[in-house]
Amino acid sequence: MKISRIVSAPALAGMVAVLSACTHFSPDGGMQRVDALTRERIGQNAVRDNSQTQTQTQAQVRQLLSAPLSVDAAVSLALLNNKGSQATLAELGIAEADLVQAGRLNNPRFSYGRLSGSGGAETDRSVMFDLAGLLTMPMRKAIEQRRFDQAQLQTALQLVRLASDTRRAWYQAVAAQQSAIYLQQVHQAALASAELAQRMAKAGNWSRLDEAREQVFQVEVSTQLARAEHHAIATRERLIRLLGLPDEQVPLQLPDRLPALPEQMQPATEIEANAIARRLDVQVARMETEATAQSLGLTRHTRFVNVLEAGYLNRSNADSSRDNGYQVELSLPLFDWGTARVQRAEAVYMRSLQRTADIAVQARSEARESYSLYRTQFEVAHRYRDEIVPLRKRVSDEVLLRYNGMLASVFELLTDARLQISSVNAAIEAQRDFWIADAELQFVMHGGSPAAASSFNFSMAAQPVPGSSGH
């Protein structure tokens, strides 16, 4: 198609440039919003590591490791040093690049052809622009903007999940270390008891049955101690991996005890409503549904316009004047009317809508369940701290008084010591389970589903000390 009088090529290029004002990269790469979302939910800042900040990062890591690591310091170290979280932050840059690309047209295409023969020579020149891309650019930019916003929420969710996993691993590692110390005390008592039983049996003061019982107890405690020491190593290594520490020679110091229990529980007011309003996975699902709906609108608008290009055309002959005009290329919908693409987009939208509703239902249920676990572990831990352990100590004091008054035997004194240590160890586990339930509740309220939080099994079943039930 040729038209003798048409807008010039520079004018057409200028018009395209004005209409397709480019989207630029943000100064912070989207980190400001991610940092705000993360800080609002866990009280910690999101940190992106790069070549310019590596020296500063290593200095912060050394500073955090210079003292026994608290649970908040462990979260800070994980956010700073965990390579998986840094990879997630790098993916945020990919999403921003897609957003910027959506605001830019495809490069124009230039063609040049020359045909010569007996009748002379003819030259064709053309510059083609993606007109369809220009017309749909606002919608494409809006879609990619929503996807970028969604990527920011996903990134914040991964950081909140990392913080929750780190807290759980820290509580587990400290409790395992504390339990191993108590089992070492049990082991020392078992060795002393077995030696005393052997001596008293030789002297004829104990039966062979009592001696065999003490020996069995000592062997069983040795086995239990080996398991406890391995569990302490395993939980420590789990924490080291989450902290992103490079090797087993890292000078990681942990406190001797778990934090003290709070005196009051968190209130149960508006648990479900807060979970729906603040959970990041719910917000991600909502945004995905909105983006899908907007994408459906774009699909309907472009169902017939698969390829639409416009450009400047110049043709000249060797024996005549130069002709100017324009050229438009349009794919005709003779075979593909776009119905399949529209139908697919509608099905994708309904899938997204139903998944969002499902996530909301799960969020409410998980909030109720997590709070029930939190309340139960709070009551159990306080019962051990305020009732069981003090009562066990009172019993031990009475047995010791009776032993001093020659009203109780050595065997009764040793048996009671085992029971007291077993109660203290169970109290440690109850305290650990409360703090893990607290971390899970916080993640359920602010992050997402606890089932997806971590594949690590934190609820190790408490194994009673052999012989703690008495003889």
Please give a structural write-up.
With 471 residues, the protein is of the alpha+beta class. Mean pLDDT is 76; it is low at 1-9, 303-308 and 453-471. Strands 1-2-3-4 form a four-stranded antiparallel sheet. Helix 2 runs parallel beside helix 7 (137-202), helix 3 (54-65) packs antiparallel against helix 4 and helix 11 runs antiparallel to helix 12 (410-446). It has one domain (9-452): Outer membrane efflux proteins (OEP) (Up-down Bundle), CATH 1.20.1600.10. It has helices at residues 9-19, 31-42, 54-65, 71-81, 83-102, 131-135, 137-202, 208-243, 271-278, 280-301, 339-404, 410-446, and strands spanning 109-117, 120-129, 308-317, 323-330. The chain is elongated and about 130 Å long.
Q: Please indicate the count of domains.
A: 1
Query: Helix tally?
Result: 12
**Helix content percent band:** 55-70%
What is the N-to-C order of secondary-structure elements (H for helix, E for strand)?
A: HHHHHEEHHHHHEEHH
Spatial strand order of the main sheet: 1-2-3-4
The protein's oligomeric status is single chain
Number of strands: 4
Give the strand content.
5-15%
Question: Strand count, sense and closure of the main sheet?
Answer: 4 strands, antiparallel
The CATH topology annotation reads as: Outer membrane efflux proteins (OEP)
Low-confidence segments, ≥5 residues, pLDDT <50? 1-9, 303-308, 453-471
Features:
471 residues, alpha+beta, 12 helices, 65% helix, 8% strand
Task: Outline the secondary-structure elements.
Layout: H1 9-19, H2 31-42, H3 54-65, H4 71-81, H5 83-102, E1 109-117, E2 120-129, H6 131-135, H7 137-202, H8 208-243, H9 271-278, H10 280-301, E3 308-317, E4 323-330, H11 339-404, H12 410-446
Antiparallel strand pairs: 1-2, 2-3, 3-4
Helix pairs in contact: 2-7, 3-4, 4-7, 5-7, 7-8, 7-10, 7-12, 9-11, 10-11, 11-12
